[in-house]
Amino acid sequence: MSDVQDYKSSLSDTSSRKFETFSYLPEMNDKQIREQVQYIVSKGWNPAIEHSEPENATSNFWYMWKLPMFGETDVDRILNEAEACHKAHPKNHVKLIGFDNYAQSKGTEMIVYRGKAV
């Protein structure tokens, strides 16, 4: 049996907080993020981008960046929107979401840019 890891996470330390499954893994590089976007597109899910201040990131309410990209299949365009959101809000976390039309829920979501707490 493997040792259980303790992930240090604290409400007072915004840089230590975990948000979703991917946040327990090592940070993804650009190629791995691209592969995740390709997966969203291959499933036919609608991509969307949200952002939030690090101190408010545990809330269910994030700011939506524009409208969801209904039917968008161009991976570069999706990645460019995530980058544009990050440039417009460099202190905020930026989350990429894949909405599953069939299940009427999120198919996946991941933080693609981590902001810095003020």
Q: What does the secondary structure layout of this molecule look like, with pairings?
A:
Layout: H1 30-42, E1 46-52, E2 63-65, H2 75-88, E3 93-100, E4 105-113
Antiparallel strand pairs: 1-2, 1-3, 3-4
Helix pairs in contact: 1-2
Question: Describe it for me?
Answer:
23% of the residues lie in helices and 23% in strands. With 118 residues, the protein is α+β, with helices and mostly antiparallel strands. The chain has a 4-stranded antiparallel β-sheet, with helices on one face. The radius of gyration is 15 Å and the shape is globular.
Mean pLDDT over the full residue set: 86
Instruction: Enumerate the spans where pLDDT stays under 50 for 5 or more consecutive residues.
Output: none
Distance between the termini: 41 Å
Number of DSSP-assigned strands = 4
Structural class: alpha+beta
The ordered H/E elements are HEEHEE
Report strand order across the widest sheet: 2-1-3-4
Q: Which percent bin holds the helix content?
A: 10-25%
Specify the number of helices: 2
Described by the principal axes of the CA atoms, the overall outline is globular
Largest β-sheet summary:
4 strands, antiparallel
Beta-strand proportion = 15-25%
- For the CA atoms, what is the radius of gyration? 15 Å
